[in-house]
Amino acid sequence: MAAAGSCSLPLLLAALCILISTAFAGNANGNGNAPTVTEIISNEDVQQALGKAWKESFNSISNSNTQRGGWIYADSNYPDDHKYLLVQHATKQRSQHQGVADADGHIQLDNPEKEGAPSSEHYKLVADFHTHPNSHDDNQRPDSDDIKRAYERGVPGILVSCSGIFYYGPQRRASLDGPNGYPLSSPESYNGQKDVRFADNKFAPQANCNP
Fold first, then answer.
1. Is 176 left (phi over 0), alpha (psi -120 to 50) or beta?
2. Which of 89, 122, 140, 200 fits a disulfide with 70 by CB distance 3.0 to 4.6 angstroms?
3. Number of H helices and number of E strands within the chain?
């Protein structure tokens, strides 16, 4: 009986180790799939951030509009739970107005700011976003430079304009391994791909948008 008991103890310990490893593997590997761009846009915190960027694109005092935007990070410790997203808004200094009537300038989103970024090494940049607040028809969707840049950066881009919410570039970051910022690599290269319209823009204000 003693011999049988001594043999069963290692087996029991091994079984416990397997159970514990299985229970914690999903939260510790840090190399799961990044959320897709549609999962990102559907996130409640991201929706609030897009609405905030849209509202801040309009300056009623100077009667001028500027593109606003920022970056979205996912916690790589929870690759399958897409509610773990953090949004960092770019500072106003990154938005440059061109000084031309009915032009909303541009925003520089390369090299995300360290101040205000997630402090944990677990968070990886999985998308960026910006607005096109003016209503003229030729500036309602991402242009070819926007789309090409998204493939170069390696993460999807999100655009909010009077015509709706659009996404473009790769469907997701290829891996949650690698740098915290832009991975600068994509599973596919730019080959003339177009943007996709995700939904109507229901964020306020809408006064600048033509009916």
1. alpha
2. 89
3. 4, 10
List residues bridging with 73 in a β-sheet. Answer: 86, 125
E-assigned strands of 17-110?
A: 58-59, 64-65, 69-75, 85-89, 95-96, 106-107
**How many angstroms separate the Cα of 120 from the Cα of each of 39, 46, 110, 116?**
22, 19, 20, 12
* DSSP bridge partners of 96: 106
Alpha-carbon Rg of the chain, whole angstroms? 22
What is the pTM (predicted TM-score) of this model? Answer: 0.80
Tokens matching residue 138: 């030729």
Q: Is 114 helix (H, G, I), strand (E, B) or coil?
A: coil
The residue ranking higher by pLDDT, 12 or 46, is 46
Q: What are phi and psi of 48, to 5 degrees?
A: -65, -40
Place of tokens 């994509």: 186
Q: CA–CA separation, 209 vs 137, rounded Å?
A: 10
Q: Kindly report, residue by residue over 14-62, the tens digit of the pLDDT.
A: 443 333 232 323 333 445 789 999 999 999 999 999 999 999 998 765 5
| Tokens describing residue 162 | 């009077």
pLDDT of residue 182: 96
